[in-house]
Every structure is written in structure tokens, then in C-alpha cells.
Design a protein that fits this description.
The chain has ten helices and six strands; from the N terminus they run βααβααβαβββααααα. The chain has 216 residues and is an alpha/beta fold. The longest helix is centred in the last third of the chain and has 17 residues.
Length: 216
């Protein structure tokens, strides 16, 4: 059985899962990755539902899982997102979890329960998402030029007041990243992202250090 379960927002073969897998291999080790099982759960509402009504498989009941890590986007409010996640997990009929008191920690208080940690992209402090980090970790031989083109596109929308009145800073960073990745091959969006992200970038150190805490 897997030692650590990581719950993400992405689909089965989505960006979050693939990027975190690559990150673990790059910044931790292949052997560590062999002890990890990803549990992609869809949107944040799907994640909250899973935490509240799921996690009742035999491996959770019998504690064949040692650690449960929840790694999702902070979106507009890290504090509220943390409260939402804890509240959903606290409602689960399986009370076999050590709920963390704060972000970026893995609670190991009760050795008879499953250790739980919560990390919110980008850094457990600011609003944002995985795309916020990916924008900073792009590797492309024309990176700055292409980013400048993306900026001009959004500046144009802003100047003409087209669909920008409700755009939060978080949504703007998501949109900028997705526009950047829309070319040259929009049909291979996920594969392109993995190819164009520098997993050795320091922007990923904090989430990598968080994952390592299961072995501390």
C-alpha cells in the first residue's frame, strides 16, 4: 500500500498530478515517488466533497496510508480555503485523521491516526494558483518576448474594457499562463506545460519542502 496519498484538483492525467510527479522526481527522489499515490479529484468543489464524504476505503480505515497531503489552489483567499478544507475533512465519518492547525505543516500528533498536511498554491500565503508559479518557471527561448505579447493582449482588453471588470489578479495570472501555452499546439496543452516548465526552479522549493515533511 502507498505510504502517502496526495489529493489534487486535476483530472486523472491533469497538470497538477503530472507536475507534482515530475517535481518529486526532480527535487526529492524516484524512490520517494514510489511511495506516493495521487488521488486527482477534479474541481475544488469535488475535492471538498471527497474530503467530507469519501476517504472511506479500507486503506484509510485500516491506516495502510500513513500520510494524506492536500495540495490545491488558494484562489482568492488562502485563509478561507484552508478553513473550507479542514471543515470538510472534520465532517468525514472516518475520524482517523490528524487535522493540521496551520498551512504548510503535516500534523503527526496522534500516531494512531493518519497524518494530514495542507498546501495551497502558490505559497500558502498569497492568493493565486499553480499557474502563478508556472508563470515564473517558464522555460522558452523566446520567453520574455512571448510574455510581452501576452501582456499586450491583456492590455488591449483592458483598454477596451472587454471582459476585465470581474477579472481578479488570480484569474489574470491563470489566463496569462493559458494564453502563453495556447501556441504552438493547443491540442497538447498538458504535454506542452510539462515541456515548458523548469521543475528545478526555486519557485517550487516551498511545495517540495512541504512534501518532504512526511519523512521528518
Amino acid at each position: 500500500m502507498s505510504k502517502t496519498i496526495i489529493i489534487t484538483e486535476s483530472s486523472k492525467d491533469g497538470v497538477d498530478k503530472r507536475l507534482l510527479s515530475g517535481l518529486i522526481k526532480c527535487k526529492i527522489s524516484d524512490s520517494f515517488l514510489n511511495l506516493v499515490e495521487f488521488n486527482p479529484s477534479g474541481s475544488i468543489s469535488d475535492v471538498l466533497k471527497k474530503l467530507e464524504t469519501g476517504l472511506r476505503e479500507r486503506k484509510f480505515i485500516n491506516r495502510n496510508v500513513e500520510n494524506l497531503l492536500i495540495i490545491v489552489d488558494a484562489d482568492e483567499n488562502p485563509e478561507n480555503r484552508f478553513k473550507e478544507l479542514k471543515k470538510s475533512l472534520s465532517k468525514n465519518s472516518n475520524k482517523n485523521f490528524n487535522l493540521p492547525d496551520k498551512l504548510n505543516e503535516v500534523n503527526k500528533e496522534d500516531s494512531k491516526k493518519i497524518n494530514v498536511g495542507i498546501f495551497l498554491f502558490p505559497d500558502c500565503e498569497n492568493k493565486g494558483s499553480l499557474e502563478t508559479l508556472c508563470l515564473e518557471a517558464l522555460k522558452h527561448d523566446k520567453r520574455e518576448e512571448k510574455l510581452d505579447c501576452v501582456k499586450k493582449y491583456f492590455d488591449c482588453l483592458e483598454s477596451k474594457k472587454i471582459e476585465t471588470n470581474k477579472a481578479t489578479e488570480n484569474n489574470k495570472s491563470k489566463s496569462k499562463f493559458r494564453v502563453f501555452m495556447a501556441t504552438p499546439d493547443p491540442d497538447c496543452y498538458v504535454d506542452s506545460i510539462i515541456d515548458y516548465i523548469d521543475l528545478e526552479s526555486n519557485v517550487f522549493n516551498k511545495v517540495a519542502d512541504f512534501i518532504k515533511k512526511v519523512d521528518e
